[in-house]
Amino acid sequence: MLKGTVKLNGDKSISHRILLFGALASGGCTIYNLSTCQDVQRTINILKNCNIKINKENNKTTVVNSIVKPRVNRFYCGNSGTTARFMLGFLPSIGVSGTIYGDKSLSTRPMQRLIEPLLKMNINIKTIKNYLPITFEKSKIKPINLSLKHPSAQIKTALIFAALSSSSKTIIRDPFNTRNHTENIIKYLNGPKDYYSKFQIKKFDYTVPGDISSASFIIAGAILIKGSDILIQEVLFNETRIGYIKILQKMGAKISVLKKRTINFETVADIRVQYTQNLQAVHLTRADIVNMIDEIPIFALISCFAKGTTSISHAAELRLKESDRIKSIVYNLKLCGGNVVEKPEGLIVKQSKLLYNTSIKSFHDHRIAMMCEILKLITLNELTDDSQNIKIINTSFPKFYKHLRELHV
Ligand code: S3P
Do 130 and 111 touch, CB atoms closer than 8 A? Predict the structure, then answer.
């Protein structure tokens, strides 16, 4: 069973964003509890390659901005879609020219949906195609007024970072209510309220709350392993990120939210999770999906234990993640005896008895790898931590095995 208390490294989404704001701040910033994951390291490396000084000492990271002076003209994003998309808005607008490229998986992820509005903002993109590598030149940003066409906080944020270099007003509407950390950080930094434009960012301090998406895997373990009772402290509890928690509570999961408080415009809480025997199936709506998009793989695993039929629809975005997650979830759960049906925009899961199968695989996708590890833990009471999996999971959650080992009794 899982027992005890855990505190997680900073949320990955907020970590990327706060680094870019630190790079724009006169006097830089001090960040506590920044994510230590590989994806965030990609963002750090690119900023350093532009002459922004970033120093890490234990839990404290300092960012000092200086005159932007790129040392390279090819910027590697590894597996990180967030880095690639943010940088396509950020770099040209701070006066950098070059090429963004990534690993095999990132090179198959769609970029046209971002390039289209960036071109409208006058970003000089040289390679007008849907995939990385993409070459761009430093550009003078034109303001825009648009509504997002896709439910993507990465696109929204890339456009906002571009807009922050222009003194004219840009308006971006988000009808999907995607994660709003960029907007919250702008509030914290006293930026303009109803539009985006250049504003003076003074030196600041920021503590990143624990990563709620990393927490989702530990939460799943606690719900599904008999006798478990854990407390996750100081975790991000932003409304646009807690779809998973709300749905699990609706299914009857024993989750209590304690000490809910707001720090720097972000909600933070402690979450107690206990083993739950009688989960009930649910139907996820379009609005549910947006607020739990990264948690669908682990949610699909939990649904196998819920009485009835769970339907996950309006989730076509899952096919565009680090792997085609609809396919990778269905492949693995089916192999283990899951009664799962693939749909064009989601999946249907019926209550099933899962048995471990050695052929399950990660598809080189960190969230699928962690889903498989939790599956192994609940069926065999074992964790693998083979070197290949460690590497993949480091993408978002380097302490995955460490925390599970500490909690596992
Ligand atoms: C993220 C937004 C989401 C999410 C990703 C992180 C962000 O991607 O899946 O893990 O930090 O803005 P999309 O914007 O593609 O939905």
Answer: yes
